[in-house]
Amino acid sequence: MADTMKAARIHKYGKSGVLEVENCERPKPGPDEILVKVHTASLNPRDWLTMRGIYQMRRVVEPFPITLGSDFAGEVAELGGNVTGFAVGDLVCAMQPLRGKFGAFAEYVKVKASVAAKLLDGISSADAAAMPCAGMTSYQTLHDVAKVHPGEVVLVNGASGGVGVYAVQIAKAMGAKVVAVCGPNNMAFCQEMGADEVINYREDDFASREDAYDVVYDVIGRSSPKAVKKALKSGGRYITTIPGPGTAFAALTSYLLGFVWPFKRKSTHLILVKPYPHNLQAMMQLILDGKMKTIVDGHYALDDIEQAVARSQTWRARGKIIIDVS
């Protein structure tokens, strides 16, 4: 194994022209880490938001250069001294935390063994690399926060994007009636994903309907707790991944009210994804059971990652953008 590798790194923040694919030192795993030879990675908006400097707390933890990328799948190449449960050659996937300088857009990445999941037989590298951030965000939203019950009505705002396509399929697998909100060009696609009803956001305001939804899952941050309040049924949950004006305050208020008023009420929640390997394996099983599939917008080589970033920045990607590393 060579001491150097190819990686996509930034040496400064910027909207474009700052991401360089270059040779650099291969990371060495710590005692509780595994080193993974990356086969496939996937791109998330959080990656290019980091490139722009939106997540600047990362800069406090580690200086430049920073290797971008959080989602990946590959083969275990080396084990830290304290690691058990993994062996060299195991196929794994994981979500690399934003902090730190060793991201997944590289030939090798080191990651805490505690956040990695072994691939189940029959799961492809692209399936595994696409799931972590987008898939776990929707899985944790619907299972852990919304606690969706069969027969409930779940609306997904932004249903055709990377997070949304997982949300539609996971909600259907949980027995929910799914309402997908998207643009006119993606309506048929959302129906193919299993949506029971599709709303064209250019012609119909879903929030104008009264007592219509048990859960509103806003993955694009285009709505607000106030805007959807009358559209939620009694006990309805508004959940978003992107806090807008008033959302963080409303989420905190809902959290505190839960301690003093644990009765049925409308609530607001802000989801922050956590790297849980058991979620990854649960989603792999959904794929094997035919209840979920990976939707790929396009494949890009590591050397072409600038093109992949440009595509993601349009907010028009249908499903996930895959980076083929090796």
Explain the layout of strands and helices:
Elements: E1 4-10, E2 19-25, E3 33-43, H1 45-52, H2 57-61, E4 66-67, E5 71-79, E6 91-95, E7 108-112, E8 117-118, H3 125-130, H4 132-145, E9 153-157, H5 162-173, E10 177-182, H6 187-192, E11 197-200, E12 213-218, H7 225-228, E13 232-240, H8 247-260, E14 267-270, H9 277-288, E15 296-301, H10 305-313, E16 320-324
Parallel strand pairs: 9-10, 9-12, 10-11, 12-13, 13-14, 15-16
Antiparallel strand pairs: 1-2, 1-4, 3-5, 3-7, 3-16, 5-6, 6-8
Task: Summarize, please.
The chain is an alpha/beta fold and 326 residues long. 28% of the residues lie in helices and 29% in strands.
Describe the overall structure:
The protein has 326 residues and is of the alpha/beta class. The chain has helices at 45-52, 57-61, 125-130, 132-145, 162-173, 187-192, 225-228, 247-260, 277-288, 305-313; strands at 4-10, 19-25, 33-43, 66-67, 71-79, 91-95, 108-112, 117-118, 153-157, 177-182, 197-200, 213-218, 232-240, 267-270, 296-301, 320-324. The protein has two domains: 4-131 and 294-324, Quinone Oxidoreductase, Chain A, domain 1 (Alpha-Beta Complex); 134-270, NAD(P)-binding Rossmann-like Domain (Rossmann fold, 3-Layer(aba) Sandwich). The protein is built from ten helices and 16 strands. It is globular.
